[in-house]
């Protein structure tokens, strides 16, 4: 048998292949070995959201004047019976903690579906307006880091706030990016307004844990202004609906609403703006009376109202006619500037013209044959863009109504012609900037694109002037379903 020596070149190739083979097989073996010795186990909610002595779910809210007070809530395990907050005017240097003063918190135990925890609440009072404060919370042994917040100015300065429609689902995996992108756009926001359905299951401790985890330290730096949606309602012991047991221990909100609706129906004044939060889930007639009184006593230049159920629903068969009949005449009478809602899991924003009646709108929709046609027709009619059946601008009161959604649950839009801008399948946050007699509204997508924008300008003796601003992207809409032939 003839035998030839391999060349040096082929020997080198063989050695390289052998080495590569050893590395690959070694890697595979190591990986297989890991799988056998350390099986992956799903982390259970009870473990993931278990309270400890170290505070979590830290959130700033107000139950007083934002110029001089600030409330903070947090959660611990039940071993912590006395929560303590420390506060001091923040300084650029690191020695400010020496001057901090202590504020004792109140605690309440909450038994959830996963555990029992203590929820603590402390209120800082007699603060200086327009001042940066540092604070931390704990128990004397375990302390959080020092957080900072800024009290509202005494001089009615310009400010911004962020508004979120329903977060509700996949809060940890899919909503977190929205609140964090909003922070990147409006890091100096005065507050974060949540128009209900923060979570999906009223009494799910894991979902509340996800909601707080998504906002994380933002909630400890920027106050929240939440109102409850239908998903914060739970089945009560008497069979009726009641507010989630998590709501009041989690936040310290104003108690200036009707009796029994403390912290779910309330007002607060920030700079030149009256913010009215209402609980549209219940006792709507009683809240109408309260709203009338609040607005009759209002001295603020701007009025922003928020609640969960839309006055003009964007969804088919989701009309809230009773609510509209009760509350809209009051918004009209007092020329409320902006109404921010959720519930319909789409986006829809009106101009200043809205239908005289929704049945007229439905009739015209039926006559037009398709909503796409109706939208096209309505934008061609008249000098002021007003279709038949839509109140003319000079007969109107200047209120802009918005429905929005920030979480990933999405519905169909019925695409009414009086909606100036609509969206489906789009997670959004809104930044509202108020500067003297000008309000600028920006709806941005989860990736920061300007989706919708307008300005409102105050005019003495007249309704607001609405200035539409060109968005950066086309409308996001699902393809229309074909109309069945008769
Ligand atoms: Fe919802």
Keywords:
486 residues, alpha+beta, Immunoglobulin-like, Purple Acid Phosphatase, chain A, domain 2, 7-stranded mixed sheet, globular, binds fe (ii) ion
Q: On the 0-100 scale, what is the average pLDDT?
A: 89
Beta strands, count: 24
Q: What is the helix fraction of residues, given as a range? A: 10-25%
The poorly predicted ranges are: 1-5, 19-30, 377-386
The largest sheet, given as strand count, sense and whether it forms a barrel, is: 7 strands, mixed
Shape: globular
Annotation field: number of helices: 10
Which sequence of strands runs across the widest sheet?
11-10-9-21-22-23-24
Under CATH, the homologous superfamily of the largest domain reads Metallo-dependent phosphatases
CATH C-level category of the largest domain: Alpha Beta
Say what the CATH topology of the largest domain is: Purple Acid Phosphatase, chain A, domain 2
Radius of gyration equals: 27 Å
CATH hierarchy: architecture of the largest domain? 4-Layer Sandwich
Q: Roughly what fraction of the amino acids lie in strands?
A: 25-35%
| Secondary-structure-derived class | alpha+beta
How far apart the termini lie comes to: 89 Å
How many domains? The number is 2
Bound molecules: fe (ii) ion
């Amino acid at each position: 048998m003839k035998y030839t020596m391999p060349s040096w070149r082929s020997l080198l190739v063989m050695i390289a292949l052998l080495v590569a083979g050893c590395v690959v097989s070694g890697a595979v073996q190591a990986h297989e070995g890991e799988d056998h010795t350390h099986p992956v186990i799903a982390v259970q909610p009870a473990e993931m959201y278990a309270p400890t002595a170290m505070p979590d779910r830290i959130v700033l809210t107000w139950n007083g004047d934002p110029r001089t007070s600030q409330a903070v809530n947090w959660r611990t395990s039940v071993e912590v019976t006395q929560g303590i907050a420390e506060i001091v005017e923040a300084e650029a240097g690191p020695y400010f903690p020496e001057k901090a003063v202590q504020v004792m918190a109140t605690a309440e135990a909450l038994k959830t579906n996963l555990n029992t925890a203590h929820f603590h609440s402390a209120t800082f009072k007699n603060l200086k307006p327009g001042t940066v404060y540092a604070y931390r919370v704990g128990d004397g042994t375990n302390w959080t880091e020092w957080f900072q917040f800024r009290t509202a100015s005494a001089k009615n300065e310009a400010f911004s706030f962020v508004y979120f429609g329903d977060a509700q689902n996949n809060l940890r995996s899919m909503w977190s990016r929205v609140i964090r992108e909003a922070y990147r756009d409006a890091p100096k926001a005065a507050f974060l307004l949540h128009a209900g359905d923060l979570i999906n299951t009223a009494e799910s401790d894991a979902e509340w844990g996800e909601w707080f985890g998504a906002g994380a330290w933002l909630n400890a730096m920027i106050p929240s202004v939440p109102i409850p949606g239908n998903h914060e309602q739970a089945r009560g012991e008497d069979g009726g609906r009641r507010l989630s047991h998590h709501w009041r221990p989690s936040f310290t909100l104003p108690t200036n609403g009707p009796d029994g609706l403390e912290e779910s129906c309330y007002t607060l004044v920030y700079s030149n703006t009256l913010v009215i939060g209402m609980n549209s889930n219940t006792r709507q007639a009683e809240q109408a009376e309260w709203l009338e009184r609040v607005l009759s006593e209002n001295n603020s230049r701007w009025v922003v109202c928020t609640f969960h159920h839309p006055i003009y629903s964007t969804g088919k068969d989701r009309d809230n006619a009773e609510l509209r009949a009760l509350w809209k005449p009051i918004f009209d009478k007092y020329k409320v500037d902006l109404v921010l809602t959720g519930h319909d899991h789409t986006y829809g924003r009106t101009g200043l013209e809205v239908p005289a009646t929704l049945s007229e709108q439905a009739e015209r929709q039926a006559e037009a044959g398709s909503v796409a046609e109706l939208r096209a027709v309505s934008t061609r009619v008249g000098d002021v863009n007003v279709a038949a059946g839509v109140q003319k601008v000079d007969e109107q009161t200047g209120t802009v109504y918005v429905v929005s959604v920030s979480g990933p649950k999405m519905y169909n839009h019925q695409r009414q012609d009086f909606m100036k801008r609509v969206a489906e399948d789009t997670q959004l946050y809104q930044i509202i900037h108020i500067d003297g007699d000008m309000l600028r509204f920006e709806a941005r997508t989860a990736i920061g694109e300007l989706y919708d924008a307008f300005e409102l300008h105050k005019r003495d003796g007249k309704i607001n002037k609405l200035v539409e601003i060109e968005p950066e992207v086309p409308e996001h809409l699902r393809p229309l379903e074909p109309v069945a032939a008769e």
